[in-house]
Write a structure and sequence with these properties.
Number of domains: 3
CATH architecture of the largest domain: Alpha-Beta Complex
Family: Belongs to the glycosyltransferase 47 family.
Oligomer: single chain
Domain Glycosyl transferase: 365-520
Shape: globular
Number of strands: 20
CATH topology of the largest domain: Spore Coat Polysaccharide Biosynthesis Protein SpsA, Chain A
Number of helices: 16
Largest sheet: 6 strands, parallel
Helix content: 25-40%
Subcellular location: Endoplasmic reticulum membrane
Protein name: Exostosin-1
Strand content: 15-25%
Main location: endoplasmic reticulum
């Protein structure tokens, strides 16, 4: 490790930063690599100062190194020359560099060793990584994904857990009858019975394959209605179907000997996928039938969490890769590793260092002195779980994490008329669901006529917790600045209401659950509506094109119920 990676660039730095070389006009950049570079530039890891960087990313597209694939439209020539033109002190024979690659080698052997240039001591983030040559704890096993894969994650696409599916196992894809990968795929048709087992294969590599295409089985339809989805190897070990299965709520059945599954350095895939030998293909239905329902449900739940947290977008895939390298550095510093599988259920699992109990109140006052304000302050001081802080800005809730104490934050507007018992009960609700926002007032996002609005009209559905009485975990303030993309931060600096929306976005995306709303209050005439819709439209237009990271709920908890 010491010979291949310069730890001194990382160990003494307070923050883990990534430097991106400038792209040039000599070589083309594919959609996939452009997206990889974009999410890195817009992340909290990015730095323009290479002296402060721990890790480096090339501005040369290395994702497709197959000279013959699709007439090599994304194959960059003369990569060795381009690499040799980099400043020698920065390239440093590839040390501390990550090279992203989706397609290695070419027909007929698709060699794992063939990237077409000298990578030096660089780490390879490689799809279709082969266990026989994979350098564990150095290289990264990268997922294979389409160029249409979302740039950022959407929470609306989270599928419901089903107790029973129409099919036990399915597959739809190419049937290879010769060459690498044909041994498994050419046997799949034997499993087809049209009911519990659906195998739809086509010799798509033939020039007349369109004449024989089967339109009676919808690709996503059969996968989303199947408990298990076969994920056999293609010409290379990796398969697009691995991510597609997870996305559609189908447990992947991996038939690809020696494939190092994506991010398996930190993810225990035995909790979410079936990994079988390729030569077991003809008995695979018997193996799947024998799996107990309890394990099936556990695997589906794990699969949903793992996909949504680490694989659901280019942003998630790339930042997960960077976080794995960051964790390696943290281990050298003596820090404990994260619990990657557990975190799919509990976003607070990695924050066990926060031992303080209690709550800091950030009180928004409309006047410096008033009888109402004094009553609220006295009521808050009488509560045993309250800590004290002083500020002149309500937005400090989003900016001053290090100066706050306790494990919870309470945003409180002095215009609220609330009893001590009601406030105590809301706090208990918040502590019972610590991974969510818990508030009294809410609004709902709505899409109308190709536009987005925030509706404050008292409705049954709500999706946005407003900051006029709101409990949440203090660690969320720290997480927010690690999570927020730079374009969103720029928008929020111009429109302060965006910070409220972004806090809702982050917590909803991490937990796949809407905020908790306590009943009894719908709205107040003094609650400002200005700029929320404007901000939402800007965030969707410039950052989350697939829609806001919000989920609606009709559920409310009675604030007068005592524990």
């Amino acid at each position: 490790m010491a010979r291949c990676f310069n730890l001194s660039r990382c160990l003494l730095k307070k923050q883990f930063k990534v430097y991106l070389y400038p792209t040039n006009n000599v070589s083309t950049i594919s959609v996939v690599y452009a997206n990889i570079l974009q999410v890195l530039r817009e992340s909290s890891y990015y730095t323009e100062d290479y002296h402060s960087a721990c890790v480096f990313i090339l501005g040369i597209d290395t994702t497709d190194r197959d000279r013959r694939r699709h007439v090599a439209e994304n194959f960059v020539k003369h990569v060795n020359d381009l690499v040799h033109s980099l400043p020698p002190d920065m390239w440093n024979e590839g040390r501390n560099h990550i090279i992203f690659n989706l397609y290695h080698g070419t027909f007929p052997d698709y060699s794992d060793h063939d990237l077409g240039f000298d990578v030096g001591y660089a780490m390879i983030a490689r799809a279709s990584a082969n266990a026989q040559m994979f350098r564990r704890d150095f290289d990264l096993s990268f997922p294979l994904f389409h160029k249409e894969h979302p740039l950022r994650t959407s929470v609306e696409s989270v599928w419901p857990l089903k107790l029973e599916d129409r099919h036990l196992v399915t597959f739809k894809g190419k049937r290879y009858v010769y060459g690498i990968g044909s041994e498994t795929r050419d046997s799949l048709y034997h499993l087809h019975n049209g009911r519990s087992s659906v195998m739809v294969t086509t010799c798509k590599h033939n020039t007349d394959w369109k004449k024989y295409e089967d339109q009676s089985w919808d690709y996503e339809g059969i996968m989303s209605n199947s408990t298990f989805c076969l994920t056999p190897r293609g010409r290379r070990l990796g398969s697009f179907r691995f991510l597609e299965s997870l996305k559609l709520g189908c447990i992947p059945v991996v038939l690809s000997d020696d494939w190092v599954l994506p991010f398996s350095e930190v993810i225990d895939w035995s909790q979410a996928a079936i990994i079988a030998h390729e030569d077991s293909v003809l008995t695979i239905t018997d193996i799947l039938n024998a799996i107990p329902m309890q394990r099936v449900l556990h695997m589906k739940q794990q699969a949903r969490g793992l996909y949504q947290r680490y694989l659901s977008s280019v942003e998630k895939i790339v930042t997960t890769s960077i976080k794995i390298v960051e964790e390696r550095i943290n281990k050298q510093k003596g820090l404990p590793p994260r619990q990657w599988n557990t975190e799919t259920y509990n976003i607070l699992a990695q924050n066990t260092d926060v031992k303080e109990e209690g709550c800091t109140v950030i009180l928004q006052a409309t006047a410096k002195v008033s009888a109402r304000l004094n009553r609220h302050i006295q009521m808050l001081l009488d509560l045993p779980f309250i800590q004290k802080d002083q500020s002149t800005m309500f937005s400090v809730a989003y900016l001053n994490y290090d100066k706050l104490v306790g494990d919870f934050i309470l945003l409180f507007d002095e215009r609220i008329n609330l009893s001590k018992q009601e406030l105590t009960n809301i706090y208990r609700v918040a502590r019972s669901e610590p991974g969510r926002l818990a508030g009294l007032y809410g609004a709902v996002h709505q899409e109308t006529a190709d536009s987005w609005t925030v509706d404050f009209t008292p409705l049954q559905e709500r999706s946005i917790a407003l900051p006029y009485l709101l409990f949440f975990k203090r660690i969320f303030l720290h997480d927010l600045w690690q999570w927020i993309p730079k374009p969103a931060k720029i928008i929020a600096e111009k429109i302060p209401q965006c910070f409220t929306l972004l806090l809702n976005f982050m917590v909803t995306e991490k937990q796949f659950k809407p905020p908790i709303f306590v009943s009894g209050r719908s709205s107040e005439p003094w609650i400002p509506h200005r700029n929320y819709s404007l901000c939402l439209r800007e965030l969707v237009k410039k950052v989350w094109s697939s829609g806001p990271l919000l989920l609606s709920t009709r559920m409310q908890i009675d604030s007068v119920v005592t524990a």
